[in-house]
Amino acid sequence: MDKSLSIDTGHHEKLYQERMNFLLTGEKDRVCSIYIDVTDNKMLAIITRKHKYNYNELNNISVRCWLDKYIYPNISDGYNLEEFKKGFTRKALLEEFEKGERNIQFYHSYYDENGNLKLYKVRVSLIENPYNGHIEAYAVWKDRTLKYIDKEISKILYNNDYIGIGIIDSCKGNLYMRAAHFEGMEVDEQKSYVYDDIVKQMSEIRIANESKEQFLKCTALDYLNDNMNIAGVYSFNVYNIKNKVERYSYHWFDKKKGIILVVIEDMTKELETDSVTGALNREGFVHKAENIIKNNPDKDFALLYFNIQKFKAINDLYGYAAGDTVLHQAVNILQISFLKPLAISRIEADRFVVLVDKNNLDFEKLTSILHRVYDKDGMKVDIYVRCGIYYIPKDTDLSVSDMCDRAKLAKLYIPNQYVQPYAIFNEDMKYDYEQRSLALIQLDDAIKNSEIKVFYQPIYDAKTKQIASAEALVRWVSPKGVILPGKFIPALEESGHITKLDTYVHKSVRRFMENRYKNGKKIVRVAVNLSRMDLMDGEIMDLIIDDVKDEHYSKQMVNYEVTESAYANVSGKGTNFLKQLHDNGVKLLIDDFGSGMSSFSTLRDYNFDVIKLDMGFVQKLGENKKYNNIVMSIIELAHRLDMKVVAEGVETKEQADYLKEYGCDYLQGFYFSKPLPEEEFAKLLD
């Protein structure tokens, strides 16, 4: 023991006790504390979580021996070990004290007694013992593992989420970047920039072409200030050149001084993920599929569009939670299927798109995954899915959105989803769809520009071969060519726009007939077609009734043809309308009789004057006795009900002769006349 200590043992004991108390009052994260005499290189005290040793027990233990036995073997990092060994020697500590340093810190990774990797912080405090002049030190090991992990996680999250953080001085037009992780741009975080210069540079280097205009507009200082003054917080999203979504958010840092905080975040995952299923949303799918196709020019890909049938019924019967489960299952089934999808998206509602390697398509297996049973509380529901397929050509200029549209279009051309629930896109589908779509987009302009023409097909008396009446038909003569009725009429019926067309035809026929009637020229009844939508539309029904009741309007002018599909589900108002027409002397015709399932109930429930025999029967006359007998029976039935019969689609003399022999009243078809423009029909009547 040192002489000075023997001179005044009481003082030393007091000092030692103070040091021990200090060591004992450590924080929770303190792992170990040592108290050493640096001058004599002796251990004076050691306190660990499990043990406490005083200097009487440590007389024969040097600092180096203790470190060699308990510390150095467990330091996991060679660099940390060398740094610690170099800095924790007697010589190094004394030199630091001479320099005036009183606190020194070390960090090292360490394996604890359980083999767990830890990060320890070692804080060394140097003091001079006033009783003997020796330099002494406290060395305290603290566990900083969790704080280190938290710090690193924060750093990782910070780097991933925040592309940049900056301060905008909107008054002076300056920008100070607090953090900047911009690919392709070097931004000094210690430097002030002219705001407009940085915005222009970012637009040219970082922002995708489709987002440049939006980016420049939304980042303009005037635009920003206007929005901030009203809303207080402002944000917008753009795509960068890597097809990633960036969100720019602006907050007032100091409103009085016009200082704005801007935060730039990578929002790609959040904004391109469907919140219900976890699959990609439409935007996410488009960008991922574009990258896959672009980066693999030699591969053959296919895009599949899936639509769950009658999905709304599942929501209505079992609730939205069950509906979400079905959507989740759909994604899971596709994900683990033989298709090995490269990208899956819930593109909308109950519709999904999948990008696959074309070689993975197996149509027999595809059919098997397009039907499954959903079991909910013992109730089982058959779920049917339709699929449209688009084979992606190499070097195509089409966007992924256009490819999705083509696959979706193919789905519409599935003839029987229970037999073959998929269809492959071809260009005929596109042409047909464009023709149908033109009707919806350009109908008003077509009527205004007189592109819609009313044609008249004469109907002849079977006995006299004289013109008895006619049917008004429409042709669309557009600048791009004639659009056939079969292309645009169904589209108009499905959309409800057919009423607008039927109103136009009604007015055109009435005008033509009134002019001939007033000029004393020959007229015959003309039949105008009424669709299912007409019998639900009060406006056209009121128009026709007003015209029929007009005393200047001849009741002999116009008949009305109603298809079986129109009156099969006719409303009460529609039924009353037909009755009013009949009561006012207007003749009603059943069009396409025999093509549906409710023909005879229609004869029972409605008062029609004429049956128009479906051309399907007419064209098979003479093929066998069965067809002939059906036609004879219909004609006989009609006559027993005081109704006349018109045979449609008569194309040969043999058909005309058969029908005349069976007692058919009127004949219509190309054998007698094709549909004629108004001028030619007028000449024929004259």
Sum up the structure in keywords.
six-stranded antiparallel β-sheet, eight-stranded mixed beta barrel, single chain, 26 helices, disordered N terminus, alpha+beta
For the biggest sheet, the summary is: 8 strands, mixed, barrel
Amino-to-carboxy terminus distance: 143 Å
- Please state roughly what percent of the residues sit in beta strands, choosing from under 5%, 5-15%, 15-25%, 25-35%, 35-45% or over 45%: 25-35%
> Helix fraction?
40-55%
Estimate the global geometry from the Cα principal axes.
elongated
Mean pLDDT: 84
Low-confidence stretches: 1-9
Domain GGDEF: 299-427
Domain EAL: 436-686
Protein name: Bifunctional diguanylate cyclase/phosphodiesterase
Characterise the protein shown here.
This is Bifunctional diguanylate cyclase/phosphodiesterase. The longest helix has 22 residues, at about 425-450. The chain is elongated, with a radius of gyration of 45 Å. The chain has an eight-stranded mixed β-barrel with strand order 19-20-22-23-24-25-26-27, surrounded by four helices. Strands 3-2-1-6-5-4 form a six-stranded antiparallel beta sheet, sandwiched between helices. With about 675 residues, the chain is α+β, with helices and mostly antiparallel strands. The chain has 26 helices and 28 strands. Helix 7 runs antiparallel to helix 8 (about 210-220). Helix content is about 40%, strand content about 30%.
